[in-house]
C-alpha cells in the first residue's frame, strides 16, 4: 500500500482538527494542504516509526508551528470583528492547551500520542487539557438547542451542557420541531443529530435555521461520512457516535470560543 493510500482515510479527520483549531474551514484546509505538499515534496521525511495517522498529524503540527500560528496575534479568523474577539479569548488559553484539548478530546489521541505530536509528556498534556477546559468555560456562556431523537442521548447531552454552565432552550426530535424552537428562542449553539425521529434530516433542520440567523453548530452523528465529503461547506465541529463526554465538552468549548454571539461569563 502506498503512503497516499495509507493517509487517505485520515484526511477528513485531519481537516476537522484543522478547522476546529483555526475556527475557519478555509484556513484550516490551507494548513492541511501545506502539510500534504510537504509530504509529497519530501516523502523520506515522513515519520515511519509511528502509524500513518500519527505521522500525518505530526507533519501537520510541524507546519502549524513553523508558521507561528500558535501566536494569538497571528491566528486567522473570518473577519476583523471576530478576529478581535477570538484574540481576546485566545489570550486566555495557551496555544498548546488548545491543541492538547482538541487532540485528545476531539481526535481521540491518547495523552502519550498527543504529547508526541506537540512535544510534551503525557502528564503535561493532561494538565493542559484540564486547564484549557476550565479557562474556556469561565469565558463563554450560551443557550443551547439540542436536536436529537434518542431520549437517552438527548438527556446525556443536556446534562453535559448544563454541567458546563450553559442553558438549554429545548430538545427537538424532528426537523420542523427544531426549526420552530430555534425561531421561538434563538439559541447561541446548536447540537444536531443527522437522522431524526420522523426520518427527517438534522442537516436540513440546520440549513433552515442558518437561513434565518447565524449560530455555531456541532453535528453529533453515527454517520460522519455524510458530512465529511470534501465538499463545501463542511461542518467545523463534528463528533462521531458513540461519543465521550469529554469530546462533547471540548467541541462545545471550542465552538463557543470562536463565536461572536457568545456572552462573556
Automatic annotation (TrEMBL):
GO terms for biological process: phosphorelay signal transduction system. Signal peptide: none annotated. The keyword Transmembrane helix does not apply. Residues 143-256 form the Response regulatory domain. The modification 4-aspartylphosphate is found at residue 193. Keywords: Phosphoprotein. NCBIfam families: PRK09191.1 (NF006623). This is Response regulator. It comes from Alterirhizorhabdus solaris.
